[in-house]
Protein phosphatase
Amino acid sequence: MAANAGRLLWVPCRPRLRLVRPMASHRALPMGRAASTSSRPSFFPTAHALNGSNKRSFSTTPAPQSAPGSGKFSYNVAASYIAKGHKYDPSTHVFHFNPYNRVQPPKPGRSKSSRPESGQDAFFVSRLGTNPDEVALGVADGVGGWMDSGVDPADFSHAFCDYIAAAAHEYRPESKAAGNTTALTARQLMQVGYSAVCHDPSIKAGGSTAVVALLGEDGTLEVANLGDSGYILLRLNGVHAASEPQTHAFNTPYQLSVVPPSMLLRAAAFGGAQLMDQPRDAEVTRLGLRHGDVVIFASDGLWDNLFNQDILRIVSRTMAKVGAWASTESGVQVSSDLRQYTQLPAADANQQADKRSVVTLQSLLATEIVGAAKSASLNRKLDGPFAKEVSKYYPHEKWHGGKEDDICAVVVVVSEEAEAAAPRAKL
């Protein structure tokens, strides 16, 4: 173990293990593309540039397991988060998505005080272009090992999400008359955010994993996942689909990076590996969604502390409690109109007061999930997914309980619009 510690300093490891023998205690610095020193160009490309093809592809594109419905879909989104070492409060650590809110382009050197209390985790949710029924969202998990070099890992992850949110909000597809019929992809949007960070003069170094998703008004979901953030799709008391982490080795996930040239030269001098993960390396999945589906995108702070079945139990219990999923003689059925659970009351939507404590179905799901993950991360007796992985790869190590980390989850409740809205039910 100790003999390998020097080499591990130059592999993109993450700060997970508290091992007795001398291993890297933090994520080792990842080797990626150095930040450009040229002047910063506009990070909003034309639709033609976004629709360009990649020569290298590592995508997984299964046939949709369920065909999208014929009606128009809408997406009800909320997020919850908490930084490592902070007390979780579901009434304040929550975000309600409003597709009509304007997303402001980020500025280099922007204040950190405006960030949510999510630590090195970051997230974004934005409508795609001018269509409020199409959504772009994602989660990025900053690489903590950069702290050893005096770099704040949150700078990369938060800037990355800010840039993607602004690009998605300003995206305008070219007209069919121009001969372009190819839609924007999740991987291309990830590339936009990464390129913008690489040209941001305030980001000298850093890195993060990333999961980026696009939800279309026809009920299609496309996800580009790089690293060990990821997603899970739940449908009627079952796990319908879930991502697998991308890793180079145990505790070594894929990640996007900005690495100073001086660090690359030092790594080369010591003979270290230079793993240069790019958006083109992201695994891409396309699925068809159904009315009543719940999709969760999250950082590894969730996946390392809750098993998929734990998340399913939380979601199933919550959906049944409010009446969104109901057991019948023919099995579990979805309420025909979910707007009574997912929409903010008109009075709350119009008032200027703080709305963070307002409860919708999606915010209730988000806070229930993050609250459970936070509790599991502090539990020293019940072994979670990360403890199982340590036991698998290092059977002689004594790791029990959860793993303390930043936690961030974005929850989507899928709704196919009905003819008329029913009164909002109390949650």
Observations:
- Residues 153-170 form the longest helix (18 residues).
- The two ends are 52 Å apart (CA to CA).
